[in-house]
Design a protein that fits this description.
Radius of gyration of chain C: 22 Å
Number of helices of chain C: 16
Largest sheet of chain A: 4 strands, parallel
Structural class of chain C: alpha/beta
Strand order of the largest sheet of chain C: 7-3-2-11-18
Distance between the termini of chain C: 56 Å
Radius of gyration of chain A: 19 Å
Strand content of chain C: 15-25%
Helix content of chain A: 40-55%
Number of strands of chain C: 23
Strand content of chain A: 5-15%
Shape of chain C: globular
Number of strands of chain A: 8
Largest sheet of chain C: 5 strands, parallel
Oligomer: heterotrimer
Number of helices of chain A: 13
Order of helices and strands of chain A: EHEHHEHHEHHEHEHEHHEHH
Shape of chain A: globular
Chain lengths: 294, 336, 559
């Protein structure tokens, strides 16, 4: 299945383990990744705030590139998903906005006609690849692991642009996937809450309190690890976890996995291949539970 | 149709209520200590009934000691906001059939606000934050005479209907992630009401307001998570108003804050390389002269480096980056 | 605790807050006591708009005539003149305060059509006019720094030497009883809709002020004039604003006919409310209803108008009946909505009791007479709210400080304690209220009869006796709503009694009072108001005052 692959900035920057694992799992899932190498950053909502026209043009360009590929655009980041969905939603239904964006990118040889569909890998597993194919690709069940899902705001809200009114089941895919992989999904409030990343540079302590609190809640409910489809969340939950522990004056020490890493383990790849040895919070303890070494 | 509803009870008095129908006292211990407990009730109601119908039925005929604020029953007065299955909603607008999960609906006061009793929260945080944004018109002078209105385009008044629709139910504040960890955050309701006056062409203090709102606890302490947009029963979309305020504040020159530096650094990075450069984004947002701030982020940078997660020191641009530069130039504005 | 102020305003809706704002502007130490937060006041449920003769082609005389004709000539014309003359400036004042009124193409205040008006003079904000006014006024109260005793439930008025000197109130959060002593009190506690079932009113509209003022000796006037709103949502009774008909909605019977043609051929759906309500009731009674309702049809208005001008009722129909009015007509029926009668005041808001003022729905000046025009109530609140604020502040200035009240505080404390100690008889407050309200709708609603009214009076006597057996199912101090509900039921009984008595006395049909035994309007004998004055256990004293006529001679009222 051909997809216009949009890896986003962070998977090629501070979260290389995400990019590597995403590429690895493409084959067992039958995904043909055509990477949109010239597509710009979505702006992560930050640019949209200050200059909507700019964000429309940048994302319009990305959407046009995918359209030219003739394939759905696949993201591996909740934030990319949220921002692209939002701009796509408006560019599709607001002709004036679309015309404006197209006017800006026209002389680059691109024009967005409003046909692209933006889907996160998480959604594609259920909606396009199909659960049966995913199940067939499983070589190693993750039985014995208690996994807490952490969605990341922008793949859950606002519901209109993300198509959640038509497909409310998207709000439960992580839990269902965890069960499919043979593990137990941990139920806790923080699953749908914000990790604080957008606020990290504005109010560091409070942002870290947010992510710290959610991980601790999951830990208290027995989670061995968290899994997230968003590398920005990962940066806060994993990269900043030691600092969060200091702010909250509590021990945390819960590893955070990327979605493709979890899939990769289930599909039989080794932890090192998935760069699970390159996390700030060690993944060793969780991996030992499924008899894996890192 | 029968509905089961689990109600969070909270009572500091250690008194017990008497069953209004039988006159028999309820067993004392459940509310003998100021600890929250859940009490389960069953009610018989039509299938389209809302949570408030259940609460009223309970307190009228089953348990008169259940305290809950309500008045209009039709999502206008804002009295009955509470946590329903863990998210803030108006009880009068929440259909029991939709909210029943695993056979029951759970209602309680939200944990991030003080409780007076049962489902009655202490909304002082809401009212105090609202007052803090000076939510009244500071008239542009001269005020037209006693027989003359300000002349303003209808669009400018219609634009504010969204903010004036706020009924101060506090559902947004109850679910605000930032407020939950940061009690100093003004919160979505106050900021939406701040925009109501910033966006009013008859108000004279736009610049001063934006300056106040740019301070700590204001518009930049929002974590942009859309909880308030999702939970607001009147479509006020407080986050949208906060974002409008952010743009207006930056345009008005209130740029000496991490928020503006963050946006500027972000834009610069994307303009020059097409991608986000995490290496420079953090330090630039913090402020290059902000030694204390920079030192605070050093430990995590070291951790990331040790784990091999630092982005490459030489930040590669995407192919065809000239295209991106052209877009920035063409759109213009602050990031040009 | 005893606290002293110059003026206490009871009620924080539009009338109450306007009175407080005015008193504060005049330098009075004013405090508002309210049983709910000001923003929760029922004023916010008023949807459609507020009237004023601002337009160039309009005149206050035209507005006054429409109001007087609408009142079926029971309104006091001098009071109506005051209201209509001052309306333009008061609306403009609210615009200066920041209300986001709708504008026409010139950027000036724009209007919509409303019932009973000879020309469009209703100014509005979407279909949330009441809310827009209320929140703006609340913002002004914050700006002025007016003290608000929030969630304090008034249990009694403090009378000293025949004058009103304060309010005793229960602080809900602590359960403590306090005396708020003052030199003047403005009662602005709103209506009594919970006395009827169905009603558009909120659960807090329990007639507190009528009863408190009545028992303090202030006469209640024209209490039988109870307005039924023609378009309340089937089942719940929620208000479907008249603005819908103002924007062009039709009323249809089961045959799909616009039946108002038979009853008000000129004004059709925009006839006065009592005329429209009776028309609907007749259609339903004669078998042309649909499950006891008629239909409000907005489909032809189109989604643009509906979503822009009437978004709130569109959402209500969706939420509570799962009906999208863009696609389907909405079942509606007449429901009790407003009390035209109330505490008798003059045009300054003064009652017969020194120091006691009243404004808003609870008051009867009378500007609405036998029937209120839509969009005149919001006007009433701000005009007479302002006037009573001014008058009470002025009165307070020339009055010595109040003293005493400890006795009252003690006796009220005992009264509440006795109430809490009542043993169970099986009678529930909610059950008794429901019986009372169903009875009122049946016997003292749209149509009254001698037999029915006397039956009602007797029934009410029975309810009063049973009320003595209602126990309070919560013995706590903190936020004891069970206690306040029982107190509210007591207020409602007083309201019910005065309404029934007033209806028995008025042997004619006028405005909202349709007496089947006296079906004609009788100006010869009944161009006057009825006043009921409390006499304890004895029947209230009945007096009459003539309607003040200035320049509009009563005519046949047809639309």
């Amino acid at each position: 299945m051909k997809v216009a692959f949009y890896p986003g900035c962070v998977s090629k920057g501070a979260c290389p383990e995400l990019y590597v694992s995403a590429k690895l799992i493409a084959e067992p899932l039958g995904l043909e990744l055509h990477e949109l190498e010239s597509a710009p950053c979505t702006g992560a909502g930050v640019l949209s705030e200050q200059n909507r026209d700019l964000a429309d043009a940048l994302n319009g360009l990305t959407l046009a590139m995918a359209e030219a590929e003739g394939a759905d655009l696949m993201t591996i980041c909740s934030t990319c998903q949220g921002v692209l969905s939002d701009h796509n939603y408006h560019l599709k239904k607001d002709e004036a906005r679309r015309d404006k964006a197209n006017a800006t990118i026209a002389d680059q040889g691109f024009r967005y006609a409003g046909k692209t569909s933006v889907k996160h890998l998480l959604w594609m597993l259920f909606e396009d690849i199909g659960i049966d194919k995913v199940a067939k690709a499983i070589k190693r069940k993750l039985t014995g692991l208690k996994i807490a899902p952490f969605y990341g705001c922008y793949i859950l809200r606002p519901s209109e642009a993300l198509g959640l009114r038509e497909r409310p089941e998207r709000k439960t895919y992580l839990e269902r996937l965890i069960a499919l992989l043979g593990a137990e999904a941990v139920e806790y409030r923080g699953a749908t809450k914000c990790c604080g990343f957008p606020m990290l540079t504005f109010n560091r302590d409070k942002a870290l309190s947010m992510s710290g609190n959610h991980i601790i809640e999951a830990k208290e409910k027995g989670a061995d690890l968290l899994v997230t489809p968003c590398p920005l969340c990962h940066l806060n939950l994993d990269g900043q976890q030691p600092d969060a522990a200091k702010v909250l004056k509590k021990d945390i020490g819960v590893p955070i996995f990327h979605l493709p890493q979890l899939l990769g383990l289930a599909f039989g790849f080794e932890p090192d291949q998935l760069r699970l040895n390159h996390h700030v919070v060690p993944t060793k303890g969780a991996l030992e539970k499924v008899e894996l070494k890192v | 149709m029968q509905f089961t509803i689990e109600v969070g009870r909270y009572n500091t008095e250690g008194r017990y209520a008497e069953n209004a129908v039988t006159g028999e006292p309820f067993p004392a211990p459940w509310n003998a200590s100021p600890v929250r407990r859940y009490q389960t009730y069953a009610v018989e109601l039509p299938e389209h009934a809302v949570v408030l119908d259940a609460l009223i039925a309970i307190r009228e005929y089953q348990d008169q000691s259940l305290a809950v604020r309500c008045a209009c029953r039709s999502a206008i007065c804002g009295s009955c906001a509470m946590w329903i299955n863990g998210h803030a909603n108006l009880a009068c607008k929440s259909k029991l059939a939709e909210f029943t999960k695993d056979g029951k609906t759970r209602v309680e006061s939200p944990p991030s606000m003080p409780i007076i009793r049962d489902l009655v929260s202490d909304l002082k945080p809401l009212w105090e934050k609202h007052l803090a944004v000076r939510p009244w018109l500071e008239n542009k002078q001269p005020i037209p005479g006693p027989n003359t209105e300000y002349r303003v385009p209808n669009a400018s008044m219609e634009e504010l209907i969204q903010e004036v629709s706020c009924i101060s139910c506090s559902a947004c504040l109850m679910d605000c992630e930032s407020f939950a960890v940061n009690p100093d955050f003004l919160g979505p309701q106050a900021l939406a009401q701040a925009y109501r006056y910033v966006g009013d062409p008859r108000d004279d203090k736009t610049k001063e307001r934006l300056g106040e709102l740019s301070k700590p606890g204001g518009i930049w302490d929002c974590t942009h998570c859309f909880e308030c947009v999702t939970q607001c029963p009147k479509g006020v979309a407080p986050l949208d108003q906060i974002l409008k305020l952010r743009k207006m504040a930056v345009d008005a020159g209130y740029t000496n804050n991490a928020g503006t530096r963050h946006a500027d650094a972000f834009a610069e990075s994307v303009k020059h390389s097409g991608r986000l450069n995490e290496l420079t984004l953090m330090p630039k947002s913090t402020g290059l002269l902000n030694i204390v701030g920079q030192l605070k982020t050093l430990p995590s940078a070291i951790n990331m480096a040790r784990a091999g997660k630092l982005p490459p020191l030489i930040h590669k641009a995407i192919p065809g980056v000239a295209r991106i530069k052209k877009i920035f130039e063409r759109v213009g504005g602050r990031f040009k | 605790m005893i606290a002293d102020h110059d003026v206490i305003v009871m009620g924080a809706g539009l009338a109450g807050m306007r009175a407080a704002l005015e008193a504060a502007r005049l330098g009075a130490d004013v405090a508002v006591v309210t049983k709910v937060h000001p923003i929760r006041s029922h004023s916010s449920a008023a949807q459609g708009g507020i009237n004023a003769a601002i337009g160039e082609t309009d005149s206050w005389e035209s507005h006054a005539f429409d109001t007087i004709k609408g009142s079926d000539y029971l309104a006091d014309q001098d009071a109506v003149e005051v209201m209509c003359r001052e309306a333009p400036q008061d609306i403009i004042e609210f615009e200066h305060m920041g209300v986001i009124f709708y504008r026409n193409e010139e950027g000036k205040l724009g209007t919509r059509a409303f019932g009973g008006a000879s020309q469009a003079r209703t100014y509005f904000v979407g279909d949330i006019t009441g809310q827009a006014l209320l929140v703006t006024l609340y913002d002004q109260i914050l700006k002025a720094g007016v003290k608000v005793y929030e969630e304090w439930f008034a249990t009694s008025l403090y009378m000293d030497g025949g004058a009103c000197r304060g309010v005793v109130a229960l602080e809900m959060v602590t359960g403590e009883l306090h005396l708020l002593r003052s030199k003047a009190v403005v009662v602005a506690s709103g209506g009594l809709g919970r006395l009827y079932e169905p009603s558009t009113n909120a659960l807090i509209c329990t007639g507190d002020g009528y009863s408190l003022a009545y028992r303090a000796g202030a006469p209640l006037m024209d209490m039988s004039m109870v307005q039924y709103h023609p378009t309340t949502l089937a089942g719940s009774g929620f208000l479907m604003t008249e603005a819908a008909r103002g924007e062009g909605a039709y009323l249809l019977n089961s045959l799909g006919e616009r039946f108002m043609k038979k009853y008000a051929p000129n004004k059709m759906e925009l006839a006065a409310r009592d005329v429209t309500s009776r028309a609907e009731a007749t259609e339903i009674a004669e078998g042309r209803g649909i499950d006891g309702n008629v239909l409000l049809d907005l489909r032809h208005l189109g989604p643009d108008v509906i979503l822009k001008k009437l978004p709130q009722i569109h959402e209500m129909a969706l939420d509570y009946l799962a009906i999208d009015m863009i696609k389907d007509p909405v079942p509606v029926r007449p429901g009790m909505h407003y009390q035209m009668g109330g505490v008798k005041t003059d045009v300054e808001g003064a009652t017969a009791i020194a120091g006691l003022y009243a404004a808003g729905e609870v008051a009867c000046v009378s500007v609405h007479g036998g029937n209120r025009l839509g969009a005149n109530s919001l006007l009433d609140t701000i005009i007479f709210g302002r006037r009573s604020g001014r008058a009470s502040a002025g009165y307070a200035k020339g009055t010595a400080a109040s003293r005493g009240g400890d006795d009252l505080l003690r006796s009220e404390q005992k009264r509440l304690e006795d109430l809490l100690a009542r043993p169970y008889t099986g009678e529930t407050c909610a059950g008794l209220r429901l019986e009372l309200a169903i009875m009122m709708d049946k016997l003292v609603g749209l149509y009254r009869s001698d037999a029915g009214l006397h039956e009602a009076l007797e029934a009410l006597g029975g309810y009063r006796k049973r009320y003595e057996g209602v126990a309070v199912g919560d013995k706590g101090r903190v936020f004891n709503q069970a206690l306040t509900f029982v107190l509210e039921l007591g207020f409602m009984l007083d309201c019910g009694e005065t309404i029934i008595r007033d209806a028995i006395i008025r042997k004619e049909s006028r405005g909202a009072h349709t007496h089947v035994d006296y079906p004609e309007r009788n100006d010869t004998d009944w161009l006057k108001h009825t006043l009921l004055t409390y006499r304890g256990d004895a029947e209230p004293e009945v007096t009459h005052v003539p309607v003040t006529i200035t320049r509009w001679k009563p005519e046949v009222r047809s639309y």
